[in-house]
């Protein structure tokens, strides 16, 4: 390992990157800061040992072919579908992320907050109401809804975010159930024994499972048919977890009450995003909300998560410097 000041770090998305975190990096390395286009990134990465990125770039074989010196990728995310993991592994590049950092992630509320904002926006028809007003309307009867306590909320996944959403549900006096493969949760009074049982019981489905190689399109036409007609779905996990073609058709047919998502399959690649079935119908249906993967994008959460992965990386360095400032 090279000594302090000799390593080279590339930060792809520096907007609102904290000065404190930048100072930490500059104490051990030479830092180059973007933002970069994809072609600029491919050029700049050639002599870099460390890459720090959020979610604006897809790091694939084309990038790796130019990254002969790359040793680490730091990404303050709980998903890694913006990185070609097979290519990274073949090149012995260590990826430092937030995966598995349960205790730390419990202190980060931003994704849970945005999930609840999407849920409220979808059920109370807030975007449609604002569009109506912008056009000069003021007809409240067009936007009647139900109190949340009349809905049963279903949580797919009862980890960090799922538990946060359950707490919000309690505040709104909303009954909730969940399905999770963790055997330690089977005796929980709100646990369902199967996905089918969950889907049959609920009026709203909120998705909180991580994407992995085994669960692409975990929710699809064969199991989503168990939902009641008019069910609402909220997704702040990953777009690849659900069959978006099925969702698009169900929205057009009004079989679903609505779908609110912060994520899309292949969202980073602009050409694929444009061809996404949900993007294609977004302007023609009134029961769809899409936000551009902003659930984790609060200043405080981004500063804390970036600091966490930086410090996690620093522990890997061959240095005797044990005087790093404490985390805020």
From TrEMBL:
Nuclease recorded as keyword: no
The D-isomer specific 2-hydroxyacid dehydrogenase NAD-binding domain covers which part of the protein? 117-295
What Gene3D superfamilies does the record tag this protein with? NAD(P)-binding Rossmann-like Domain
Q: Which PROSITE patterns match?
A: D_2_HYDROXYACID_DH_3 (PS00671)
Q: Does the entry feature the keyword NAD, yes or no?
A: yes
| Gene Ontology MF term list | NAD binding; oxidoreductase activity, acting on the CH-OH group of donors, NAD or NADP as acceptor
Q: Where is the D-isomer specific 2-hydroxyacid dehydrogenase catalytic domain?
A: 9-98
Q: What is this protein called?
A: Hydroxyacid dehydrogenase
**What is the protein's species of origin?**
Antarcticibacterium arcticum
Q: What is the lineage of its organism?
A: Bacteria, Pseudomonadati, Bacteroidota, Flavobacteriia, Flavobacteriales
């Amino acid at each position: 390992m090279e000594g302090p000041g000799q390593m080279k770090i590339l930060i792809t998305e520096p907007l609102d990157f904290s000065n404190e975190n930048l100072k930490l990096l500059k104490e051990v390395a030479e830092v180059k800061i973007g933002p970069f286009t994809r072609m600029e990134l491919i050029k700049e990465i050639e002599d870099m040992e460390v890459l720090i990125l959020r979610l604006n770039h897809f790091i694939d074989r084309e990038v790796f072919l130019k990254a002969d010196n790359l040793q680490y990728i730091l990404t303050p995310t709980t998903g890694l579908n913006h990185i070609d993991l097979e290519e990274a592994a073949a090149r012995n590049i260590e990826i430092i992320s937030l995966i598995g950092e349960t205790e730390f992630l419990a202190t980060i509320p931003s994704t849970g907050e945005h999930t609840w904002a999407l849920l409220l926006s979808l059920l109370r028809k807030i975007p449609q109401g604002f569009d109506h007003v912008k056009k000069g309307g003021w007809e409240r009867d067009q936007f009647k809804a139900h109190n949340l306590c009349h809905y049963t909320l279903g949580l797919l996944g009862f980890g960090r975010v799922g538990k946060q959403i359950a707490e919000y549900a309690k505040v709104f006096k909303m009954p909730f159930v969940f399905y999770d493969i963790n055997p330690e949760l089977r005796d929980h009074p709100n646990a369902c024994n199967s996905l089918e049982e969950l889907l049959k019981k609920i009026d709203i489905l909120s998705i909180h499972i991580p994407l992995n190689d085994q669960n692409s399109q975990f929710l699809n036409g064969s199991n989503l048919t168990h939902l009641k007609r008019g069910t609402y779905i909220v997704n702040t996990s990953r777009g690849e977890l659900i069959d978006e073609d099925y969702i698009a058709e169900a929205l057009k047919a009004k079989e679903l009450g609505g779908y609110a998502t912060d994520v899309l399959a292949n969202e980073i690649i602009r050409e694929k995003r444009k061809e996404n079935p949900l993007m294609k119908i977004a302007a023609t249906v009134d029961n769809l909300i899409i936000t551009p993967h902003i659930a984790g994008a609060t200043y405080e959460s981004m500063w804390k998560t970036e600091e966490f992965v930086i410090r996690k990386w620093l522990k890997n360095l061959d240095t005797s410097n044990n005087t790093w400032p404490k985390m805020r």
